[in-house]
Specification:
With 67 residues, this protein is mainly α. It has helices spanning 2-15, 36-59, 61-66. Pathway: Energy metabolism; oxidative phosphorylation.
């Protein structure tokens, strides 16, 4: 009976809502706004980091199938 009681206590603690502290997010504008060129470089870097490895894998998919 004690094992059943422990399992109910475990389930009760997992279903209890947890209190999460609020993040310190401010709604102030940026101290140094980004120019259009800086934004373009950032977007290009993000797309490159994501698309180049996946493109490499897709281009060499037949090689990976042979292994």
């Amino acid at each position: 009976m004690s094992g059943l009681n422990r399992s109910f206590n475990f389930l009760r603690t997992t279903l209890r809502p947890h209190i999460i502290p609020k993040a310190n997010v401010s709604a102030k504008p940026a101290k140094h706004p980004l120019t259009a060129g800086e934004q373009a470089i950032g977007m290009l870097a993000m797309f490159t980091v994501i698309l180049v490895p996946s493109g490499w894998i897709l281009a060499h998919l037949e090689d990976y199938k042979k292994r």
